[in-house]
Design goal:
There is one protein chain. The protein is an alpha+beta fold. The chain has one domain: Aminopeptidase. The chain is built from five helices and eight strands; from the N terminus they run βαααβββαβαβββ. Strands 1, 2, 3, 4, 5, 6, 7 and 8 form an eight-stranded mixed β-sheet that branches. β2 and β3 form a beta hairpin. α1 packs across α3. The chain starts with 6 loop residues before the first strand and ends in an 8-residue tail after the last strand. The model has no long low-confidence stretch (mean pLDDT about 95).
């Protein structure tokens, strides 16, 4: 018998920005930016380097970056533990708190995104997966489309990423 998930997936609200900003800053640093030199880290984090700030300008900069046409959060006992940002045909980013990995949160966020994408008539979803994320996306049916590339993140350079895509399947019910 499998455990019943305690988390819920819901649409993002503007009031979520500070908590989502901290989540992104912490997980991006811990799981994706280990290659970065200390002086390069703030450049790669962009506005998220100020995720703990209470200054209005910092909070607004973070809120602006978070906004996306498709945006979900995962909550566990009232705490935001995951976030997915995307737009039609592109999964832009997915972050799940490290102490909530391997609980189905990332999978459920991606499933919600794929479901919404099908409703928009999308047939292929693309993602620039970080090296840490490749096994996760592969397990969900995403396939590498080229070799590893080096990209930018805000003002920083050198972020390794793997272009991937998934062809969405549609059943008899159109889903």
């Amino acid at each position: 018998m499998s455990a019943i998930p305690t988390f819920v997936i819901r649409p993002y609200r503007d009031a979520d920005a500070p908590e989502v900003g901290r989540l992104i800053a912490e997980t991006y640093t811990a799981f994706n930016l280990g290659f970065a030199e200390p002086d390069e880290l703030p450049k790669l984090l962009g506005p998220f380097r100020n995720a703990s700030s209470t200054e209005a300008a910092h909070r607004e900069a973070i809120a602006q970056v978070i906004r996306a046409p498709i945006l979900y959060v995962a909550e566990d006992n009232g705490e935001i533990v995951g976030v997915l940002r995307g737009r039609k045909g592109r999964l832009a980013s997915l972050f799940v708190s490290g102490d909530h990995h391997r609980r189905g949160i990332g999978r459920r966020l991606v499933e919600c995104f794929e479901e919404e994408s099908r409703g928009l008539g999308v047939t292929v979803i693309k993602v620039a997966a970080t090296l840490y994320g490749i096994p996760f996306y592969t397990a969900l049916g995403y396939r590498k489309t080229t070799g590893v590339r080096s990209g930018r993140s805000f003002e920083g350079r050198g972020l390794p990423y793997q272009p991937m895509k998934k062809v969405l399947r549609y059943g008899d019910d159109g889903r």
